Amino acid sequence: MANSGSFTTSTYGGVRNITFNWWLNSQDISGNYSDIGWNFIGSGSNSSTWYYTLNGYLNVNGGRVFTQSSTKVQLKVGTVLASGTTRIYHNNDGTKSFGADGGATIYNYGTYQTGSGSWSLPTIPRASSGSGGTGNIGSAVTINISRASSNFVHTLTYAFGNLSGTIASNVGASCSWTLPTSFYSQIPNANSGVGTITCYTYSNGVHIGTKSWNFTAKVVNSNPTFNNNQLTYLDSDTNIVNITKNNQHIVRNVSNLKVTFTGATARNSASIARYEITFNGNTQTKTSASTINYGKVNSSKNLSVSVKVIDSRGNSTTISKTITILDWVNPIGNITAGRINNYEDETKLKVNTSISSVNSKNSIVSIKYRYKKSNTSTYSNYVSLNNNQEVTIVINKLYVWDFQVVIQDKFGSTTYNFQIAKGLPILFIDTIMQSVGINCFPSKDDSLFVSDIDFFDIFPVGSTKMTTNNVNPSTYFKGTWELITSGKLISGVDKTFYLWTRIS
Question: N or C of the chain: less Cβ packing under 10 Å?
Answer without folding.
Answer: C
